[in-house]
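User: My collaborator and I are trying to settle a disagreement about how two of our proteins should look. Neither of us wants to argue from intuition anymore, so we agreed to look at predicted structures for both before our next call. Could you fold the first one, then the second, and keep them clearly separated?

Assistant: That sounds like a sensible way to settle it. I'll keep them separate. The first protein:
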Amino acid sequence: MLESLEADRAFVAQKDAEILDLEAQIYALEQSISTLLAAKEPAQARLDAYKYPILTLPNEIISEIFLHFLPAYPDPPPLTGILSPLLLGYICRPWRRIAQATPPLWRVIDLTRTEMRGSQMKLGIPLIDHWLRSSGGCPISIHATDYEDSAPIISALIPYLSRGEHLKLTAKNASQLSVIEAPMPLLRTLHLSLSESVSVPHILPNFPLLRKVVLEDHAVRSISLPWPQLTSLTLQDAGFDSCLTVLQQTRNLVHCTLRGWIQSAPHTEAVLPSLETLVIERGSDGMMEVLSSFKTPALRCLELPEVFIRPVWSLDARRIKMLNDFIAGCGTKFEELRVTQASFAASEYLAAFPSVPVLTVDRL
């Protein structure tokens, strides 16, 4: 019994000695830590007093820098990704607050570059709503194209169309087209593509500021706009009869682009007294006959591809005469003929059109 007690006393004494040794080490470490903290303190104080230059700028300046991060209005940034304004909110909390408090940062929304389909489309609708609500009361530019089913996108845009200044839209059918029958008092440019034709043209009269229009596919035949107020018009992939019906009403047109196939020969004239620039990008073989139906006394510049002047392997004398006659009918204001997709040398065109003041040949 005495031997057992003696052994326990020895064990306890040993552990007390170990504890005292550890406490001495801890005390020494605490002293070292205190010394290090004291040495660190002046440097930390200097760091705490330092302000990063970007964080010293007023919020208004940072907001202006953010706006220069974007493409020039009304061109769109991507909805998501490294060049999206959403990225600015990921840098730090102060920048997120500044971005959200800068309505012009959100005044352009591009829905053409996203891959929202099916369930992803539903997830994207709250983002669209948040984006456009953040634009405050700014006029907005909307690009919504290239969707197989654009109905959810169009529905999400409806509450904001009254602020639309620039609208590029692909609609699938007449029910989706009816969205833009609502008044858009700020609308200046409209780019519309319609996948299906409608039996009765939709009348869209509520655009007092509308000046520039691009119509693709069935849209040319399916809508009626305030044509007399337009100054710029592009018609794509439409028959001549449909184009002519529109052009006969656009007497204030200054710039016109025709892009697509002509399905019939002209029977009546299109008088465009204010037209200064006419661009024909592609069309049927009978385009020179179509051109003769235009009366453009103020025309300054005509652009067309070489294929309309040479049907096979040489410049066509008959077509050259028709084009010279057309240019002569434009009067003294005519300044430039541009031939695109050309294979012949400029010298051949200079010989064919000696009366043209400026002849530009863009070779293949």
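The second protein, kept apart from the first:
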Amino acid sequence: MSNLANITGIKHLETNNFFLMAGPCVVESESNVLRIAETVAKITDKFKIPYIFKASYRKANRSRIDSFSGIGDEKALKILGEVKKKFGLPIVTDIHSAPEAEMAAEYVDVLQIPAFLCRQTDLLVAAAKTGKFVNIKKGQFVSPDSMRFAAQKVVDSGNNNVILTDRGTMFGYHDLIVDFRAIPIMKSFGFPVVVDVTHSLQQPNQTSGVTGGRPEMIETIARAAIATGVDGLFMETHFNPAEALSDGANMLNLNHLEGLLERLVKIREVVKAF
């Protein structure tokens, strides 16, 4: 099984709390990223929650060609490196093609495979060969049972450091649902399992070409995930989601994070009792 202690810089694992991957959808600017990272780090330290800072250096899966995709790969990756240097935080970011794996691995600790790409063998193998943790998001079109094969591609490439993340399953053209049966199914494979709370609440494929969302349901999904025994949570968060350059419609307002995590830690304590 993956040993999260192998992630450089991760703290508070001794608390047996859930771990958190959180941050903005994409690197928008250095000041924005550093401010969010510092704020979330202080909150997670307060509650002794193991924390991995999340931001994509580039967003390749966009609805429209004019959608914001990033400020430039090298510039964004250097900003992520600055977060790691300044706050001592481990970093997770998306990669979209095999050549990106080695490039991103110079700056981050966890390489994330986007849901639409979870079956891409060359991408999974390239990520595995960096030796970094590989977080594979379950495709919206994939059953939880099928994720064993995605994970096995990484293991067969010589890397046991796998995390599996559920981010909802397509329910019609414009909505997603979270099937909480997926958590124990994927945990049975022997890897940590995460629920991506905010992406699970997306409403994709809108006629406007801009993805919608249901952020008012974030706490509902997060509570259910903790109650079901998930190992970690993934959330995108921003000080002003309405002005976020990507996925603002389903982000958590950062001002609400502390109260939410406080409540989730209490639920986790109850779950641990069982």
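Some points you might bring to the call about the second protein. The domain at 4-273 is CATH 3.20.20.70 (TIM Barrel). The chain has one domain: 4-273.
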